[in-house]
Amino acid sequence: MELGLTIPLQRQTGHRAGPSGGSGPMYCWDLHGIELAGRRCLLGVQTSSRYSFVLYDLSPFQWQQLADTAVQAVGQCLHLEGFSAPQVDRYLALAGSAAYTKTHGRREVAFLNRAWFFCLEQELAVDTGRQLQTGLMELCNTQPCRCAGHPGLGVARTRFWQDLAALGLRR
To answer: What SS3 state is found at 24?
Structure first.
């Protein structure tokens, strides 16, 4: 799994990022550190579908172990979307071990920025009592948007499901 780190996130965490491009777009997630409700949060956006997750108020250890943190969040997202534990394990196995890379291109970063701005606009939806921001994610992933892996407007959640179905994973 490729975890594309923005330059500010590389500076924040001290993680170095190698070149991107070894994995298919369904296994690539661009990551950025954002601030919501006064806390540092992690925004992850799948490069193909623009499916997004937000983790609120990460601990210093979670920032240090960013790859593990992000992979666990992806697994949690798949569970939330109704995929079984074996299906989640299959996706994570197909994605391979996590590697820090540079972000996956200008277009993908533009869509990451749009997801970030949407999260800022919906900051009142932040639930400070939980780390995985399911309510904010619901809002973000059900809005019509554009993405790098699919033409035209569409819903990130639906496109994410389509990407997973192409891998043989169906809810």
So the answer is: coil
Distance CA 59, CA 49 (A): 28
**Residue 95 corresponds to which tokens in the numbers above?**
């994605």
Q: Is the pLDDT of residue 22 over 80?
A: no
Alpha carbon distance 114, 171 (integer Å): 28
Q: What is the pTM of this model?
A: 0.94
Give the whole-angstrom CA distance, residue 7 versus residue 104.
12
Confidence (pLDDT) at 138: 95
**Cβ-based neighbour number of residue 16 at 10 Å:** 9
Q: Distances from the Cα of 96 to the Cαs of 3, 13, 41, in angstroms?
A: 11, 22, 25
Q: Which residues, 6+ apart, have CB-to-CB distance to 143 below 8 Å? A: 118, 155, 156
Residue 107 has φ and ψ, to the nearest 5°, of -65, -45
pLDDT bracket for residue 39 (50, 70, 90): very high
- Find tokens 């954002």 and name the residue: 34
Q: For residue range 43-95, what is the model confidence (pLDDT) as tens digits?
A: 999 999 999 999 999 999 999 999 999 999 999 999 999 999 999 999 999 99
Instruction: Identify any residues that bridge with 43 across adjacent strands, giving them in sequence order.
Output: 32, 54
User: How many CB atoms lie under 10 A from the CB of residue 150?
Assistant: 17
The domains found in the chain, sorted by start residue, are 2-166 (3.30.420)
